[in-house]
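Sample entry (173 residues):
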Amino acid sequence: MTLPLPQPASLDATDRALLHLLACDSRATYQELGHAVRLSANAAAERVRRLRRSGLIRAYTIDVDRNSLGQPLRALTNIKLREGMSRRQFEDGLLELPHVMAAAHTTGEYDYELTIGCREPAELEEIVDRLKEHHGVREVNSRIVLRDVPLDRLRILEHPTTRRTASNGTACA
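Predicted structure, serialized as tokens:
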């Protein structure tokens, strides 16, 4: 049984539509947003400002294609730190590793999960060696990402029984 997710009281269908539109194109103008949701540009702008003030919209970002940067291989890498290695020291050391695309401090068997981008398996091996030699890593478990599963990042905004799928138009083109 799937429990319904709590919804912010002030989030209506127009707000959800605006969030979907901005997730697909954060550079959309208020004129374009308003046209898509049948509001004036000023009304769309005020709604977006309200969503920002509420903290629901925290930032507008870009999605960089790692293939274009020559890093077609991506690995999910679990890390166990050596005894005595502080989290702060490890996390500060990650700033020296531009191949680390994301890092999460986790519960369970491993201390961290890193997302690493690189050209080829040999480069991944070099990065893992560097983590072990210079960054206090005791154990590493890496898996290479074969492909991403396309999921609508904003599906959390919809009730599970009314959730729409990419096949009927909610995902970005």
